[in-house]
Description:
With 80 residues, the protein is mainly alpha-helical. It has a domain at 24-72. It contains two helices and no strands. The chain has helices at 27-45, 49-72.
Amino acid sequence: MSTGTSASPAPPKPAPSGPLAAVDGYKTYIAAAGLAVTALIQGLVQHDWTSALQSLMAALGALGIRHAIAKSSPATAKTS
């Protein structure tokens, strides 16, 4: 007995456009690098080690979440 619904593949995503298209796929890495630099400044220049550790943990957390999402999402073919 059929329920009338069938699984159809999702339509392909359009190519990224706009001001951030050049860094598509690298935005999380850029943000994590910014947080790491912020942690260095907070720790070494301002001597605020608590905030430095929080910034560093936020950077590592962003990278961990990005890795988990990339690992769980199906592979997609790149179009040139």
